[in-house]
Amino acid sequence: MTSTLRSLPDRAAFDVRPIRALAEYRACVALQAEVWGEGFEAVPAAVLQVATHVGGICLGAFDHDGTLCGIVFGLSGSEDGVPMHWSHLLAVRESVRNLGVGRLLKERQRELLASRGIPEMQWSFDPMIARNAHLNLNRLGARVVRYVPDMYGITDSPLHHGLATDRLVVALATSPAPASSRVRARPTSAPVLTPEPQAGDDVIEPAGTARPPALWIEVPSDFQELLARSPSSSVRWHGALRQQFLWALGEGYVVTGLHRDRFTARSYYLLETR
Predict the structure, then answer these.
(1) Average pLDDT over residues 196-221
(2) 131-168: pLDDT as tens digits
(3) Which of 142, 177, 212 is the last residue of a domain?
(4) How many helices and strands (H and E) does the chain possess?
(5) Exposure pattern of 167-189 as b/e (b: 16+ CB <10 Å)?
(6) Are residues 80 and 156 in the same domain?
């Protein structure tokens, strides 16, 4: 099978491989604290080690100096009698973000699962973070399964902003579909759900609205910047996104990707009817 990794531009800069030694497992714990903060409930080295012994996956991305730059960790089990894998965490050191490390780790994870005969993996991500949505939906081709309000409770991690940890749960087949089948034509125009409408927007509200064939749900292009600039606006966006997603998914819409408008610098989830 031709590896998806060979087509990714930054593969040569990183050695993506299973974590092997106790020192490397401990480095994984340190990286979790670096990414999510010391108050984060990190997966301990012993649990990482034992989990991989019984079929879990813990992969590291190492640079040319042997420094651990990123990790992905997950557990395998079954759902309704079908083998599946839950990818619990993906962490990338800040200095190498936007270099494709996260994608390298997820693609290698998928290849390993396919070789083990596990047909699907699932994970969750913060729907407020547009760059993560771009990776998961557009780059990897994952499909949204459900929206879960406050999935992990309020945490002390600075990355969780003191807000409820709402998450989108996504699923990804381990045998990748051809790239062309992941890309769907987006409508030239569609109404938008947004807490901050702008001139020219065709705005609709979730409650009592007609059910158009496609719609946009706006998300901040840089939620961290918004949080630092206006915490009250961040809370309003967070609440609006929860209401909008729960309504749209309840109405049978399917999330088909994330669109980032380079002219307006706005970001939108695209949802379409089945």
Answers:
(1) 88
(2) 999 999 999 999 999 999 999 887 666 665 678 999 99
(3) 177
(4) 7, 11
(5) bbbbebebebeeeeebeeeeeee
(6) yes
